[in-house]
């Protein structure tokens, strides 16, 4: 989930997964709050200020949303205290599942930007695995940013799939926030994919969560559909 409060950018990420495990790695988590980063280079607002008032109004607007399409962009207030809040849930999580994630994320909002998680275990054939996993992520990016990938009149900017690599199936997903157009989201994916070599090469699972885009891959199915 990505939020933007005025000129203060906030990243709060929540995973909705299938299993509960004790460690913060790239393994499955159930409604678990993962991480947040915030940027307070623009300064901090004061308690009781108009800015704080509009933040609270925006958050209450989110809380009253029905979460049916898993995405919303909300504005409250007027310049110079106007507040913008945006959230987006993972492509397979809508309605009550999305609401539980956003509620958890809002409760943990803070101020710093992207991060990654990896499975601590290595694969056997790292060179083949890295090459084919990168190819799968690229294929999903092309699908996610395809101009025909739409629901109604809005770009989905999400894709998921799997691929056989050696003796294992690799499952993956990519997603960008819906405020981006297809060309911008492609550039966003390209940027976060640069982190693959830093965090995830040869690992049995990994995810990178950026301010506007994220990807994940595992050796087990982690999506609902």
UniProtKB/TrEMBL annotation:
Domain of life where this protein originates: Eukaryota
This protein is called: Gnk2-homologous domain
Checking InterPro entries in the record gives: CRR_secretory_protein (IPR050581), GNK2 (IPR002902)
Q: Which Pfam families match?
A: Stress-antifung
Signal peptide positions are 1-26
Record domain Gnk2-homologous: where: 111-222
Q: Which UniProt keywords apply?
A: Signal
